[in-house]
Amino acid sequence: MPRYSLQAEGARDRTRNMTESAYDRLAERLAEDIGEDRLELPGFPEAVLRVQRAMESPEASAEDVVRVLSSEPALAARAVQMANAVQFRRSGPEVTDLKTAVARLGFNLVRSLAVAYAIQQLRLRGTYSPAAKAELESIWRTSIAVAVRCYVIAKHCAGVNPDEALLAGLLHVLGRLYIVMRAEGIGGTADAELASTAQAFQGEIGKLILASWGLPETLQNAVEHQADLDHESEGPSITDVLIVAKHLAAERATDEVLCPVADRLAERHGRHPTDVLGEHADELRDLTRSFMQ
C-alpha cells in the first residue's frame, strides 16, 4: 500500500465538503488524485523532482545529487552560489565546483534550494491567469519569509536543526501551490475562492505530497500542523518552529493574536522568538537575499 493511502481517506472526504460552485471540478480532481495516490505538483520543474527522487533512497550519495543538479545549469549555479553565502560558508575556501557545494550544504539545504528554485520558476511563467499569478507571487514570498524565520528561530531559540527547519519553512506552501496549479489545469477560478481554498487545505495536502516524496515524518507533521497555534509537543520541535515562524511572518500578526507555542519556546529558552528575530535582523535579511537572488 502506498505510504500515504490511509492519510488520504480523511482528506478525500473533506474535499467533498468544498463549496458547490465552479470549484466542483477542482474538488473532484483533488479527490481523484488523493484516492489514486498520485498527488503530484503540476508544472513543477522536472529537475527539481529528480532531486527529490534522488534523495529518497537511504543509499543516496552526494555524487547522485550532483549528477541530477548538473542537468539543470541554473540550479547548479544557485547551489554553488549559496554554498559561498556567508550563512553557509562555515569554514574553508570559496567553493567553485558543484560536488564541494553539495557536500558543504548538505541534503536538507539542497532540497531547500531546489524547492525555492522551483517556485521561483513557476511564478516567472507568463501563461497563468491573473488569479494564479497573484497566488504564485504570494506563495513564493511567503515560503521564503517563513523559511528564514524558521532558520533563525531554530538556530538561536529552539535548539533544533536549523537546516531542517529552513526546509520545513519552504515546504509548508506545497499544498497551497498544488491547489493553485490544479485549478489552472481545469480552467482557473475566482481570486477569492482560489486563495481561500488554498489556505484552508495547504497543511493537509502538503503532508501528503511530502509523504509521496518519502520525506521524514517530522517534516510531514510540521507541515500538517502549521496553522495550529495551540499545538502541544513534548519538547521543542520542527513543528513548533514552523508554527511560530509562520505566525510571526504573517502581516496580521499582532500582540493581540495569541500563539501559545511561541510562549512555550520563550519559557524554555528564556527569550521570546520575536526578540530573537529582532536581535538577528541582519541574518534574516542576508538569508532572504540568498534565496531571492
Question: Which helices and strands, and how do they pair?
Answer:
Blueprint: H1 5-15, H2 24-35, H3 46-56, H4 62-69, H5 73-83, H6 98-124, H7 130-158, H8 162-171, H9 174-185, H10 191-212, H11 217-224, H12 238-249, H13 260-269, H14 273-279, H15 281-292
Helix pairs in contact: 1-2, 3-4, 3-6, 4-6, 5-6, 6-7, 6-8, 7-8, 7-9, 7-12, 7-15, 8-12, 9-10, 10-11, 11-12
What does this protein look like?
It is a single chain. With 293 residues, this protein is mostly helical. It has a single domain, classed as Hypothetical protein af1432. The longest helix has 29 residues, at 130-158. Helix 3 (46-56) packs antiparallel against helix 4. The protein has 15 helices and no strands. The N and C termini lie far apart (41 Å).
Label this structure with key terms.
single chain; mainly alpha; Hypothetical protein af1432; 15 helices
- Described by the principal axes of the CA atoms, the overall outline is globular
Radius of gyration from the CA trace?
A: 19 Å
Output the CATH homologous superfamily: Hypothetical protein af1432
Query: How would you state the average pLDDT, rounded?
Result: 80
- CATH topology (fold) name: Hypothetical protein af1432
The share of residues in helices is 55-70%
Order of helices and strands: HHHHHHHHHHHHHHH
